[in-house]
Request: fold
Amino acid sequence: MSALPTATLPTVLAAASAVGLQHYIALAALLFAIGFVGVLIRRNTLVVYMSLELMLNAAILATVAFTRYNGTVEGNVFVFFIITVAAAEVAVGLAIIVALFRKRHSVDVGDLATLNN
Amino acid sequence: MIQEFIMAFLPELVLLAGVLAVFVVTLYNDRVARARAVSLATAAALVVSCLITLRSEATLFDGAYRVDLFSQWLKLAFGVGYLAVILLGRRVDDIRPDIRPEFFLFLGISMTGFVFLASSIDAITLVVSLELSSFPLFLLVAMRREREGQRMQMESAIKFMMFGVAANGVMLFGLSYLYGLTSTTSIPLMVQRLQPVIDGPLALAGLGLTFAGLYYKLAVFPFHFWTPDVYQGASNETAGIIASMPKLGAVVILVRFAAAATPDNQLITEILTVLAVASMFYGNLVALVQRDLKRLLGFSTIAHAGYTLLGFVALDEAGFSASLYYMTGYLFMVLACFVVISRVSRDGENVAIEDLHGLHRRSPLLALTMVIGIFALAGIPPFVGFMGKFALLNAAFARGHTVLVILAVINTAIAAYYYLRVVHASFFGDRDATDQMPIALDGSTRALCIGLIAIVILLGVTPAPVIDAITTSLASVVAVP
Reply:
């Protein structure tokens, strides 16, 4: 039993070294797609908001992977700014969601259907 | 060295100092009048400093920020718009009383974002200034007071914010692809390196996603759905801001990126053509049945976004400068309409078309402003709306997009119907309308009305020098460095 981790470690490392840019890009695209679909179909504002964060994180992951692959550093600086902007976004967004909850006692998108054509 | 920096960066410094002063004012209680006075002084100083630095040229912050004729005239346009919006928000009645000074604070912060946007030539500065300009607007929508028959502001704010943040996420994801392809965050370099690979799937996906985020701000067809709801839910002043500034900002960034594609690029022109046609038809047809004036303007915004895309379909300098000229004119036309809406509205409530009845007797100046704003939007000479549409149609026609030009002209005719309904209501409305009280205007509103009328006419009767100046200033943006 105790020999198991040492036995699998090289295998894990070998597998990890085979992970290339395309894997990261595929993962980023997948995260982005999950976030986008979540924004479209989820009904709870907070869950929608989490999906939005997922989209931003997909952008961050893709940028970091590209930075590593390109060998430049600009992308990493960009990522720091995206993270900062995302933090500000959460502050503004949650403020509005809390204000909405105080008025309506609900954060469900379905309760927000008074404006329609 | 430091003098050169200050001279090039003067408008931004003035604006930052002014916003800081407004922030200090908002820390005290009951300071609406003072917050407004400080904002007004800031806006006036911004306009003056833009005029002083109109000819200065510099590249600041390690190549992330460029000051040239292009950025400076845009800052001037934003500055004049800022001034107009402050005069428009005279008493900001419809904002909750305890947070009225913050209206001017958030407005100032948002304007800082737009002014920085004009000079940003790096993806990082671009994203930061874009977010700086849009976050305060989400809050401005939510700040409308709640009362009987007016409970949709939170809903509008949530919609605006959710879709806004989603559009930002889409744009950031697109930018990350563009960065991966070009390994630079500098937009001119990015554009230059994109040109050889523009037909690759990664470049198309990156550009497409980036543009989708910007189309949200511009309210182009599949990304338009927030517009009428937000206009209706936001207070009249806030809707005026959202209807004017972000559109010009979005067009500026689109021009910076669209330079990556050459006019012969079939796929991009086809996609843009479809979006332009869909926006024009959707916006104009739905606007036909609207009764709320702000919703009507919301749908007409979508149609105007479609017209603006005509310049991008042409994908050459003539097209870009026509789009910029049109959007600059649009800023002032739509502000003219919102001045009238804010003043006709007695207590900050929304205005239906019927509320304009007898306006020419209640306030001749407001009626005149409304008619000129609406005629300009409808594209009737000699106002800027006509010359702008003409320049756009010309640019698209010169590139052989005849069908698109014909469809745009048909749309102008459809739009004339609902625009004329508004004019009809203000001049020939019911004689025995319930409310015939004259509307008293103070000096600043009169000055604002006359100023906006003058700008809409002046930009319209002197198109050649204005478009020439825009084209000259575009040389530094479109030309490959």
Observations:
- The mean pLDDT of chain A is 80.
- Chain A has one domain: 12-108.
- The radius of gyration of chain A is 20 Å.
- Chain A touches chain B through 46 residues (CB under 8 Å).
